[in-house]
Specification:
single chain; 176 residues; alpha+beta; four-stranded antiparallel beta sheet; 2 helices; flat
Length: 176
């Protein structure tokens, strides 16, 4: 690498760090210990007064409310309580890509969920999957855990092998 390039990179990195530090000071992200004149002036704060921000500049959740997933009156669980994540894993020896799927019961009210059906298209795998864990019943309908309850906080996982990742989403559940 030429000396010009190394010097140029050093200058760019130094300028970036300085700019980010200056931005943090001006926006008050420096742990709130300092109050700069520029910040006070831009917020309309006067010298000699308490430096509290007006409450209209940000929205806060009130303390007594909780955000619930989409629930029908009386239901203690919903489809949104099942979280599906999947990602690539090392391929099979013959080169077919593999993916690991994790299906989690994240019910906030402590419920167990059974009869978990997923939209899965024409799901298939070159690697055998235990049908008690996951099986395709018909087009776009796959059953998780053989229909048995997935306990609150429980995770069920499996691996499949195919040339592409299948998009999976919850189509229906039964609250236990």
């Amino acid at each position: 690498m030429e000396p010009h390039s190394v010097r140029r990179i050093a200058v760019v990195v130094t300028a970036s760090i300085f700019s980010l530090g200056l931005l943090a000071v001006l926006t008050g992200l420096d742990s709130g210990t300092r109050t700069g004149t520029m910040v006070s002036a831009s917020l309309g704060l006067e010298e000699g007064t308490t430096n509290t921000l007006p409450s209209s500049h940000r929205k806060l959740l009130s303390h007594g409310t909780t955000v619930e997933p989409n629930r029908i009156w009386g239901d203690k669980c919903s489809k949104s309580d099942i979280v599906i994540s999947q990602g690539p894993t090392p391929p099979l020896p013959n080169g077919i890509p593999t993916y690991t799927v994790e299906i989690m019961n994240m019910c906030v009210s402590g419920c167990d969920i059974s009869g978990i059906h997923l939209r899965c298209g024409w799901f298939s795998s070159a690697r055998l999957i235990n049908p008690k864990v996951f099986k395709r019943l018909r087009y776009n309908d796959c059953l998780v855990n053989d229909g048995r309850p997935l306990i609150n906080g429980g995770i069920i996982s499996f691996q499949y092998a195919n040339t592409f990742l299948y998009p999976l989403s919850v189509s229906s559940v039964v609250c236990v």
